[in-house]
TrEMBL record:
It comes from Albidovulum aquaemixtae. It holds the Pfam family Aldedh. The lineage of its organism: Bacteria, Pseudomonadati, Pseudomonadota, Alphaproteobacteria, Rhodobacterales. Its EC number is 1.2.1.3. This is Aldehyde dehydrogenase AldA. Belongs to the aldehyde dehydrogenase family.
Amino acid sequence: MPTVTEILETMDYGPAPEASGEVMGWLKSRKTFGHYVGGEFTKPGKTFDASNPATGERLAKVAQGSAKDVAGAVKAARSALPAWSKLPGHERAKWLYAIARHIQKRDRFLSVLDTLDNGKPIRESRDIDVPLVARHFYHHAGWAEMLDDEFPSAKPVGVCGQIIPWNFPLLMLAWKIAPALAAGNTVVLKPAEYTPLTALAFAEICAEIGLPKGVINIVTGDGETGAALVAAEVDKIAFTGSTEVGRAIRTATAGTGKKLTLELGGKSPFVVFADADVDGAVEGVVDAIWFNQGQVCCAGSRILVQEGIVQTFTKRLHARLSKLRVGDPLDKCTDVGSLVDPVQLARVRELVAKGEEQGAVLHQAECRLPSKGSFFAPGFFTNVHPANIVSEVEIFGPVATLTTFRTPDEAVELANNTRYGLAASVWSENINLALDVASKVKAGVVWVNATNLFDAAAGFGGYRESGFGREGGREGMREYLADPSPRAKPEPEPGRLDAAPVPGTPGKGVATIDRTAKIYVGGAQKRPDGGYSYAVMGKAGQIGLAGLGNRKDVRNAVEAAHKATGWGQATGHNRAQVLYYLAENLSAREAEFTARLRSAGVPKPAAEVAASIRRAFYYAAQADKFDGAVHSTKSAHVTLAMPEPFGVMGIACPNDAPLLSFVSLVLPAIAMGNRVVAIPAQSMPLAATDLYQVLDTSDVPGGVVNIVTGARDELAKTLAQHDDVAAMWYCGSEAGAKMVEEESAGNLKATWTLPNRDWHAADGQGRGFLLKATQVKNIWVPYGE
Ligand code: NAI
């Protein structure tokens, strides 16, 4: 026993373990878990072990789900769907409230189970995970209650397949299940193989409260079970996990019509300016990268410190690091627990060793690690070269990199120097500076003078390769409601694409028609790279020629679009003015456009031009009105939900209503600040190429709208594959839609493959288009006390 003097000198804490008897008793009584399907646990067949990573001891045996098990669960969810989706929202809300209350009643039990299964400190499961789980169900009970008012005539998606990771086992379950149920969907959820136990305890809660059978189904298993769920007859897949698996799921669901949301990895910047509250920022690092052993998708894993304070900052960070208590996760004094599994430990060790080999210097807490379990001492790297593996790869362990910057511009450049875009944290006492950086950083969540704050009322999700879709709040609810589905209309045949030399091009064959539309790149008409054009046929034969664009033309157009950065920064008012001007100029040439469409044999030419003009005025009006929201989330904060443009978008238009469909797709995209590379109707591109002069005379800056004519699906493929295109809309054939979704997996661009429709109908325009043209950035700002 240490003496009182010794205790006072060291200020060591004695052990304060949370009791685990009740949970261990529960596990002992269950021993082996089957899947939870149709309101009952199945008889387990093949099983695997669920272990406590802090000790290595087995906690239970859990069934390994086969494709047949998954199919059975999907069937149960399908049978439960009609009754559940028809329940009035108020009735579904009652079930969600019941779940929330039961979570609260069992909070201690669930915290201990979460900690045993995952290795996270009890302080975190008890004070963060489980309270947020309850909050999520309460919040979404409210959405169920208000569904009809807030989302009039919206329908649930159907049966949702949900695949979750192991870092926040119960919280991720809540993020997935609560909105799905509120919207009237039924669910098959697969927890991660390392952490299946809280999901099974949750299943028991569902059974206990008498939730209608089949509404929630839990199938346990590994990646193969996950892949079987992706392939099953579900209407939506919601996935959280690694970018690699996210990419595989994107490819596997391409062309299936399954709605998809992906919440993937990150390498999030944590930017500290010289005028920051240094102690606050150091404490921020604790919550950013040492929280949950760094196994957090939005962990602030790249600390960027302004040069002037780096010494002070590093010194205090060292001091704080040395005070972290690493050890038994069940101990209430523990700050850092165990990684989730020996496999993860090996992965972290390997990455950290490679980082050191490549010259980075590791500063690690000098703590005595428990002799058993998957513990890794927290730390950070200095002397890190940008090309070092630890600068680029998500370590998913309690180790950050620390580098410096000089100016705010440099900070933004470094912050954005990653293929990810999940989160960012900005520390400065200068509100102008902090909010300026928040606006420039490419991330779905930005915390100002804070980090890792979450709330059910705020959306969460990434930019770039961190995935697409949002969880939480209104945006999250939308992901569980079916997209409005206008009656699909087959598009006319595109016609032949016979290449002919562009008139005047030296070489064989001279076309007899002088009306040749070039392509439009960077605000100028350009001869297509290949030097060829193709005949555009009208009612009475050929009515002109259009440039036959190729991959190089698409690449040039993307480059030109990239250069037009000012458009995204222009105010809504500026963009509205340009669009009004465009609408006016189009109206001034109404007769000419009508005649052109008539000669092309387009049905209802006058109506099409009139509708296009109206649509241009509509999106001009929306340019400064479609805006975000301010969420009331945590105390002392508000969360700004700002719809931001993607940047460069690709748009492939249908062979139908060639002017109206072009205007209906391109204008909402640019109204929101995107720059566009558009492929107009292959059969009648002249409707779009006639717009060149309208664009020129309407002050649309060069590079904002780029038009490449030619073989739509070939050009669309190049756009879908292009890493500098952030989002892609495709309206055409089913095969083309599948191709676009598949090819977009490279940089995980957000895609929207919409069926052709009657473009004259009311649903040819509206806020739905603007929603698809934007991604929401959630910015957490200090506000009040
Ligand atoms: P993972 O992405 O393989 O696992 C996440 C979930 O996906 C699990 O439920 C798993 O069973 C399932 N899964 C795996 N392969 C699948 C497939 N082909 N189809 C459908 N579902 C599949 O992540 P893993 O291997 O556990 O961890 C590896 C790395 O991934 C981590 O070190 C970390 O860098 C990253 N990761 C990121 C997470 C995040 O929240 N962003 C969460 C978990 C891991």
